[in-house]
Design brief:
The complex is a heterodimer. Chain A is built from 19 helices and no strands. By secondary structure, chain A is mainly alpha-helical. In chain B, the strands form 3 sheets. A 5-stranded parallel beta sheet of chain B has the order 6-5-7-8-9, with helices on both faces. A two-stranded antiparallel ribbon of chain B has the order 1-2. Classes of the chains: A mainly alpha, B alpha/beta. At the A-B interface, helix 1 and helix 19 of A face helix 1 and helix 7 of B.
Chain lengths: 468, 371
Amino acid sequence: MNSQVLLYVIVLPVAWFFLWSLKSTRSRQALLLATSYALYASWGLKFLGLLVCSSVLNYGLGTLLRRKQSVARLWLGIVLNVAMLGTFKYLPAMAPLLPHSSLISSFANIALPAGISFWTFQALSYLFDVYREEELDPSLLEFLLYMAFWPTVLSGPICRLSSLLPQFRGILKPAAENILRGIDRICIGLFMTALGQLLASGIHVGQGIDGIFDRPARGVTGSDVWCLAVGYGFELFFNFAGYTHIVIGAAHLFGFRLDENFDRPYLSTTPSQFWTRWHMSLSFWIRDYLFLPLVMMRREAWWRSFALIVSMVVFGLWHKGALLFALWGLYQGILLVLHRQWQQLERRYEWQLPQTIMGPVSWIVTFGAVCLGWVFFRANSVTQALTMLRAAANLNKYASRTLPASLFFLVAALVLGYFGTIGSQLLVRKYSAKLRLPLEARFVLYAAAVYVGVFHMAQTQAFIYFQF
Amino acid sequence: MGLVIFVLVLEVCARIDDVVSYDAPFWGPYSDEILLQRDSIGKWGKPGARYAKWQLNSLGYRSPELRPESVRIIAMGASETFGLYEAPDQEYPRQLERDLNSWAGRDLFQVVNVAFAGETLPTAILRVPQIVKEVHPAYALIYPDLSSYVWMFVKTETAAAGESSAARQTRMSFDSRLAVRVRNLLKQVLPSAIQNQLRKVSMRREIAARHYVVLERVPEDRVERFRQDLHKLIAALRAYGVEPVLLTHATVFSKPLSESDHVALTTWRKVYPMLKEEGFLDMEQRMNDGIRQTAAEEHVPLIDADKQMPHGPKYFADMVHFTTVGAGVMASVLENGLQPLLNSQLQRTADGVAQGRPADGERSTTGPPPQ
C-alpha cells in the first residue's frame, strides 16, 4: 500500500458527495473527468499528458472518420495508436536486443505509462466502431472521460464507448441498491485479492507460488508442476478477478455499470468457452476487432485456424513484448484450433457420448490444458518453462515432490474452496432466489473483507495486471 | 449499530489473525513487551517468548537453540543487532552464521544474537557473566548503540521512561489490536512530508511537556563515558576468555544528505527530542572515532562497518536499522573482517579433527574469571 491508495480513499468520497449535488450532465461529466485526471496524475504528470494527447488525437481521428469512412483514415488511427503503444511498451523491451548506442540505451529507460494497453485499446475500439458506422457522437468532454474514466483507466475492463456513453449522459441517482451492490462487489474483490496474495506468498515465508517460481526449476517433478500451474492459475484469477470486482463495485457506487470481465472461467468445458469467460473485455476486443476481420479475408479452413493462432499470439503479446507471452498465446491458439478440429471430427463421425461422461472429461481436459499454459505466462525464462513442461510430461517424475507440503495443501484447499463456493452459490440461487442477508450480517462480512483485503494485506504486492 | 458491528468484527479479525499467524493469545495484552522480563539489572529476554515475527530461544536470545560442538560468537548490541525490519532469520547475526559456515565448509560456527532492543553498554557489561555462563562464546562482536548516551544522564527523561513503561504495562491490557494496525497502515499510506510534519509537532510538544534542554551536540563527558564503558565491556569479556571484536556504527546517512536522510534525521530526533538533528551526525562521528581509538588502545580487532557499509534506504529501513539487504551486506562485511581472526580457529579445528581430538572451539573456550 502507498500514498496513492490514500489519495483514492480521500478523493473518491469527496467526488461522490459532490456528484449528486450537481444538476447538469455536463458538470457531472466535468467533475468525473477532473476526478479521473487527479487520480491518474498521481501515477505521473507526464503519463497524464500522454493520456490527454492520445485522447485528443483519437477524438480528432474519430471525427475525421465520422465525416468520411475511409480505410486509409482507419489505418492512420491504427498505426498511430500501435506506434504509441509500441514506443512505450515494446521498445524498452527490445532495446537490449538492438545494437548498442546512446539512443538505443535511452529507449530502455522509457517508463511504461499506467494502463496504456487498456486505454489504447479503448481508443482503437472507438475508431473501429466509428468506421463500422455505429452511432457514436461523443463530445470532446465525453470522449476524454471515456479514455480516463477512473475505475477502468488503470487495468480495465476495456470498455466500449457504446456501453459507457449512455451512462455518461444518463441521470445519475444515488440508489441504495447500487450502493449495497457496489459494497458487496468491493468486499468480494478484497477477499479474492487476499486469497491471491496468500497463494503468492504461501503459508510460510518464501513457500508461495511466487517464491517457488523465482527459484531454479531443476529437479522439479510432475506433481510439483501441476501444483504450481494450478496454483498460479488461481493466484492470477483471484488477483485479477478480485481487482475487477473492486473496480466494478466502485463504479456501482457512482451509478455506473461496467462490463464484466470474468464469468467463472474455470468451470469452462472447452477452450473456446474459457475465452468467453476469462478477461472477457480483452477477449471480446480481440474477437471483434482482430479475429473476425481477419477470418473474413479468406474462406479456407486453414486460414481460420491461422487467424485463431495469430489472434491469440497478439492476445499474449498485448500483455508484454516477450517471447514467453508469445508462446503462451501460441499455446492457447493451438488449443482453440485443436478444439475446433475435435468438433469437426465429432460432427463428421457423429460421435454422441453421454453428457455425464463427456462433461466431466471435457472439463478436466480444458482445466488441465489451460492451467498448464499458465507456466508460460508466469515462468521467468523459456528454459524454466520448458523444464517444467518436460517434468509434467515425464510420467516417471510423478512419484515424488520437491515443493513444501504446505503449498500443496494451500492450493488444494483454495481450489476446492472455490469450487465449493461456486456450487453452493448455484444451489442458493436455485432454491432461494430471494434469500437476502440481514444488514447486520452484511456488516460482519464487510468488516471481515476489509480486514483481509486491507489490514492483513497492508504489505501486499500490486495487482498483477498493473504491469500490463 | 452497523458501525459498532463493523469495528468489533475488525478487532476480532485482528485477534484471530494474531492467533493464526503468531500463535498469540486471543484475549489479553499482546505487544513487544511480552518478549521481555525484568530483573535487578533491567530488561532481559524472556525464554521461549514469541511476539509477531520475533522468536526467542529457551535462553531468551533471538537465535536458534545452541548447537553443541560449535565455535560460538556472540553478537552484542541493541535493536540494530536484535533486528527489527528484516525478514525472519535474515537479521545480520543469522546471515553471518550462514556466511561463516559456508566459508568454513561445515556447520562450525554459531552466531548467537544476545542483543535486544534498548540494550545499553552499562547493562551489557553487567550481563556478561550470565551470557558467558549460558553460551560459552569464543568471540564477542560488539556493535554498540550510541544514541542511548543522548539521554542516559537526563534525569527527567529517565524518570519519564520509567513512567511510560509502567503506564504502558497498565495500558497494554486495554490495547486495541485494530488501532495498532490502523497506525501501521497510516504510516504506509501517509506521504512522508506529512508524517515528518506530524513528527515535528509531536517533538515540540514533548520538549515543552518534559522541559528538555535541547543540545546542539552530545557533551564530551558522555562521549568519554561511552569510551570508558567500552573499555569496561572489553575487560569483562576478556576476564572470561572471550575475544572481543569492535564494530563501528553504520547509518543510512550519505554525504551530502539526501531528502530521505533529512526525514530519517527527524525520525531519529522524535525518539531523542533533546538533541538537535545535526547533533546525531556529530555524535556518530565522534563516537565512531571513540570506538576506533578504544580498539587501538586495547589491541582489539576492529571492523569499520561505518566506512564499509553502503548508505541509503536500500540498506537501512530507518536511520540505523537494517533492511534484509542491508543485514546481508553487514554480514558480508563482518565475514570479511572476521576471516583473518577465524582462520587460525579453522586451522586448529582441522588439525584437531585430523588428530582425533576436539579442537579448542569445540570445547568450552571460556572459563570462570580470575578471582
